[in-house]
Amino acid sequence: MQTPNSAALSATNIHAAVHARPILQGVNAQFAQGRWTSIVGPNGAGKSSLLKVLGGLWPAAQLQGEVALLGKDLQRWPRKQRAQALAWLGQGEVVTQELTVMDVAMLGRLPHQPWFAAPSREDHAVVEQCLRAAHAWDWRHRPVAELSGGERQRVLLARAMAVQAPVLLMDEPLANLDPPHQTDWVDSMRALTAQGITVVSVLHEISVALLADHMLVLQAGRVLHQGRCDDPATHAALEGVFDHRIQVRAIDGVWMALPRTATVVQAPERLR
Amino acid sequence: MAAFPTSAPASAAQREAAPGLRRSAWLALVLLVLSALLLLVGASVGSTGWESVLRMRDDPTSWQIVVDIRLPRSLGAWLAGGLLGLAGAVAQGLFRNPLADPYLLGSASGASLGSALGLVLLGSSVTSLNLLYRLGMTGMAFVGAACAVALTVVLARNVQNTLRLLLAGVIVGVVLGAMRDLLELRHPDILQAMQAFTLGTSAFVGWEGCALMAGVLLVCVLATWCCARLLDGLTLGEATAASLGLPLAPLRYGLVAVLALATGTSVAQTGLIAFVGLAAPHLVRSLVQVGHGRSTVLAAAMGGVLLLAADILARWLVAPQELPVGVLTAALGGTYLLWRMHRSTRSAGGL
């Protein structure tokens, strides 16, 4: 087992391309064990691509550099063991309309099952726990076709958590979630890291991203900054990468990203 | 949300059946009963009507009509429909497209080219009941279907990119279709026999054909049942399926093989029968919502019921003559899909 704060996941000198067009250019990043790191940056900075590289989902022919999972080269992990060690929640995962909530969450247990076996008691117990955590247990028998976007996202979150991997990668996990469920998600990330699980998430909601332990700021395929979320240097990098169109402020002890619009309308003025 | 469980809470919920499972059990029962009833009707409908059944104890000709002609062709129609329904469900799962059809990978045009070649090489006596001749024709159609699918896979370079696979299937279909047309132009004497093949008919299915189709259907059902949860996993998308450690390449090759085997066998026995493979999984999905394991088996049973019902209609509508069953399935299946489209555009949903 890793010692606390050693890197559960690390990327060294990553160059990735799509049809010879460079997407990532010499990315180095360390993701400490038992910590939640959020990856932020403008559109097209390479956030999702970096997450794919970290998840071993980038075509090897278009990739240079090394990713190490729990101290071992990602490419050298046997497929099934890697699936147990590294859970992934993609952006806009689609699901056939016929599966029920329970079926979808149970798919997260596939890495733990022999290919042709039925789910075990333990699988059922884990799925129940994850669906309860996502507040989805009560409608576990509904087909996903009937769910709203936010409800579906919660089921997919439960599916990713059901893998019970020590490293969890999430691309835009908050898509379609309403504020209370966003808060629930943050709480569950904290609970996971308290158990020693490493979480890496790509987030567009900068204020939620600031609730993480660490932040990786990407710009045009390069790492602009990596540091603690409460570090003023991180805030400066964050404001810089978004052309100072946002400002990071502490409100009631919580770091928030506020828009810096050209015309600020004062609330009382609107009443006049 | 809380974190992962540290201890496993025993849950009674895992044994309680979901509503979808109960409904699928009911549907299976209904389809079984329907199949049995239709088989009985199938044994009684034909150019000589009920009389053959009533007299079959005393009259050897009636016995022969029922046991050697009507029963095997009815069972054959059910089995061919079952193979097409299963292939349709597999195709729709593999391509993650509800409009995927079992003939997509070029198997249909491959089988017709194989048949045309067979007719040219073996002679075009369509009514010959010579066993060796029938076996040869079936073999040619099957080899044609298998070669066409193999060619599609080679052209698509591998099975990983389903879009490339689809495009390659379309191209192979067009090219092989053109080759068949050329062959027909050079040998106009095979045209009539080819027509029977392209329109689809269960008239030439004997007990050997039934045994073959039953065996293949069993193998294909078992194979898809075993990878059903992997097919479910595939619906989460490429990246997530890979992250779950699914053996994507072997899975796809296996499914393409099942697709080729099921369509090749059915086309070789009954010719090209349209829409059953497309409509059967659709009908199942509109009735029950279950994972790929159950829905594939149900689609097979549904395909069997559909084709057997169509076959009986084809024999009965203009008796003592009969319609080619493929024409009937195309007309009925097309109407059904139109109706579904109409309904789904009204409710603003997809197919």
Quick synopsis:
The complex is a heterodimer of chains A (272) and B (351). Chain A has helices spanning 47-54, 79-85, 101-107, 121-133, 149-161, 179-194, 206-209, 232-241, 267-271; strands spanning 7-18, 21-32, 36-40, 63-69, 72-73, 86-89, 167-171, 198-202, 214-219, 222-228, 246-251, 254-259. Chain A has 272 residues and is α/β, with parallel strands linked by helices.
Topology (elements, then pairings):
The complex is a heterodimer of chains A (272) and B (351).
Chain A: E1 7-18, E2 21-32, E3 36-40, H1 47-54, E4 63-69, E5 72-73, H2 79-85, E6 86-89, H3 101-107, H4 121-133, H5 149-161, E7 167-171, H6 179-194, E8 198-202, H7 206-209, E9 214-219, E10 222-228, H8 232-241, E11 246-251, E12 254-259, H9 267-271
Chain B: H1 19-44, H2 51-55, H3 60-94, H4 107-122, H5 131-155, H6 162-186, H7 191-199, H8 207-226, H9 228-234, H10 238-243, H11 248-270, H12 276-287, H13 292-316, H14 325-346
Membrane topology (chain B): Multi-pass membrane protein
Pfam families (chain B): FecCD (PF01032)
Protein name (chain B): Iron ABC transporter permease
Number of helices of chain B: 14
Q: What count of domains describes the coordinates of chain A?
A: 2
Kindly name the structural category of chain B: mainly alpha
CATH superfamily of chain B: ABC transporter involved in vitamin B12 uptake, BtuC
User: What is the highest CATH level, the class of the largest domain in chain A?
Assistant: Alpha Beta
| Cα distance spanning the termini of chain A | 64 Å
